[in-house]
Every structure is written in C-alpha cells, then in structure tokens.
Amino acid sequence: MPIIRIEVMKGRTEAELAAIGQGVHRALVECCGVPERDHFQVITEHEPGRFIYDPGYLGIARTDGFVFVQVFFSAGRTTEQKKAFYARVAELLNIQAHVRPEDVAIALVENTPENWSFGHGVAQYLTLPKDQWR
Amino acid sequence: MPIIRIEVMKGRTEAELAAIGQGVHRALVECCGVPERDHFQVITEHEPGRFIYDPGYLGIARTDGFVFVQVFFSAGRTTEQKKAFYARVAELLNIQAHVRPEDVAIALVENTPENWSFGHGVAQYLTLPKDQWR
Amino acid sequence: MPIIRIEVMKGRTEAELAAIGQGVHRALVECCGVPERDHFQVITEHEPGRFIYDPGYLGIARTDGFVFVQVFFSAGRTTEQKKAFYARVAELLNIQAHVRPEDVAIALVENTPENWSFGHGVAQYLTLPKDQWR
C-alpha cells in the first residue's frame, strides 16, 4: 500500500481535486508497480498562511497552484522508477488538472512490508503471496 | 513517543472518535511497550472525495467507516509485536467504537530515538535513562 | 527539502502561527544547513478532541498551547545538529510566538535525496550540484 497525502491551496474544483488524486495514483501504477486497487489517499485543502511554499527555490517559479504530494510506501523501487514517477505525475497533473509542472513537488517516505495492515488486523504482506496483492 | 495520525470520514460521534484514539493507544501500550503516558495523536475527519480508499483491495470489503492509522515511532519493535498490535487495534476498535475489522488499515513509519524531543528543546531519549520514560 | 507539518490547537492568532512556522524554518537554516529558500510547511489547527497530548509524559507539564512539529528531510544531519535544532526551535517559538518551551515537541523522519522532486517532474537532488541548492 502506498498511503498518499496531497496538499493543495483552497479554491480548486472537485473535478480538479479528483484528477490530481487519480493522476498520482495512475503514475504509481504505471511507474512503480503499485496494484491498480491499492489506492488510498488523503487530500487536504489549506487556507492561505497554512500551506507555505517558497516561490523560487531551485530556480522554479511556484504559484498558489502548488501541489505537494507525499507518498508513504515500502522500499524497493529503483531510482529509475522514482524518476519516471516524478515525471509522470507532473505530466498527468498538467494534462488532467491544469497544474503547472513547476507547481508539483513530491516526497517519498519508505518503510517495509511488515509495517502494513490492510484490514482484519492482519499483516497481509507477510501472509499473502505477492501474486495475490490485488 | 509515537505520534499517531488517524484519518476517518466525517460523521462519527465524539464518543466513537475518542474510543478510536484510545483503542489505538491501548494497543500500543499492550503490544509494543509504549509507556502509558506516551500518548500523542492527531485525528482528522474528512469530507467525501478527500479520503480515498479502495473498497476491495486484497479481497477486503471496505466501507465509509474506513479508519486509517499511521504510527510514527522508533524502530525496535519485533514483527511479532507489530502483528499483535494490528490484531489488537482491529479488536479494540470493533468492541469500543463499532468499527468493522475490514475497515481498519494501519501503516508504521520508524525512526530513531535521537529524532525526538518532547519539550524544553531537549532530546530526552538521549539524556534520560529508559526506566524514566514515563 | 524538508516538508514540515505543524499541529496546534485552534485559537492562536495569525501572527503567532506565522511566527511558529518561521521559527521552525529559521532553526532548520541555522542548525541543519537547510537553504534559506527551502521553506515548505503545512500548519494545521485542531479542535479539542482532535489533537491529543499527554499533560505530563517525561515530567514535562504541557498545556493546550502544545505545538507538535514533524520534519521530513534527508538523512545526514548529525546528532549535534539535531540537538541544536530542538533547542533553537524551543527558544525561537518562545521569543517570537509566546510558546512555552514545555509545549514544543518535535519528531524527525529521514529519507534520501533521490526521494524528492521540487517541480518539473525532476529529482533535482540527483541532477543539480549541491552548491546550486538555493
């Protein structure tokens, strides 16, 4: 499971928020081998002054359209997979939700398979063969 | 310290929310050796469309009663402790807050003792003997 | 990049919230070598019953003025840097936002440089020389 936390400034439409969430999930499926149904997200809208970003760090011009995506998942993805994921998120959010590529920041936090339970109080990634993670 | 982030859909009663928080804490104390007073949590209620879950991943039938629990704590718990913790959370949330066991998902994120300060700007886990962590 | 998540109880002024965010950032810049412009934060205000803290864990007397700071950043800071950071946060939040030093708790979560993208779908910490992280 990844659990994904997405932060945006207040003011986006329902359709945009849905497209942002779906774009991040789609990129995980395509680039990181995440199962199609492994889809868990929290999307939070913030008032001004509660979501702080620098408008120029690393020479990138950010606006209030800034989207911050934090993905918690198990370690094991390669650097190439992560790079492909970043690029695909920026692309999909631009196409589907009109987010400027400059306004997409992403951070990954990795743990281990034993650190997940998906229900019934069971650590499924320890008890269920990988070909049944669907 | 663990810091625990609990996500639920809007609509639960105050009593249910309190019971969910207390159940997660109780399970940490019983199964993972967390001190009784080491109790720090953030509980967030979400509108539809802001808290996304798959209703069938891994063959588990989830509903809008879905509760996601993310625990940040120091590494050092065994796999057996973690498995006992998952089972006890599902059990206590069912008994005390009427949460279906299918609707409880948990993720752990581990760090190290030097990564905590509990007040006064001091890294207590480096300066205080473990028998005084209470 | 650090991404910083700050939790407070509802009721603080805009000026206090801004001072809390700026104090945490200032301490990161001074003590942990974080670039001045590397400033990204989420500040969340909570209703009673949604932000739980123990009023006496480790012998520290906490009040509803409690502030919890969670910092996600790349590994590499020394224990000495982290200890200096904790002390400086407590000091700055006290001076600038009237937060009692007892009411400041901090947790760090570390990842790796390849786990960050700051825009354009690129992993800047892999592609940009460190002397250009500004």
Could you name the ranges of chain A where pLDDT drops below 50 across 5 or more consecutive residues? none
Oligomer: homotrimer
What radius of gyration of chain A results from the CA coordinates? 16 Å
Through-space gap between termini of chain A? 10 Å
Per DSSP E runs of 2 or more residues, the count of β-strands of chain A stands at 6
SSE pattern of chain A: EHEEEHEEH
Strand order of the largest sheet of chain A: 2-1-4-5
Q: Largest interface by residue count?
A: A-B, 35 and 35 residues
Number of helices of chain A: 3
Features:
homotrimer, 134 residues, alpha/beta, 4-stranded mixed sheet, 3 helices, 6 strands, elongated
Describe the structure.
Three copies of one chain form a homotrimer. In chain A, strands 2-1-4-5 form a four-stranded mixed sheet, with helices on one face. With 134 residues, chain A is of the alpha/beta class. Chain A is built from three helices and six strands; from the N terminus they run βαβββαββα. The first copy, chain A, has helices at residues 14-32, 79-97, 124-127, and strands at residues 3-9, 41-46, 51-52, 67-74, 104-111, 116-117. In chain A, α1 runs antiparallel to α2 (79-97). The termini of chain A are close together. Chains in contact: A-B, A-C, B-C. Chains A and C meet through β3, α2 and β5 of A and α1, β2 and β6 of C.
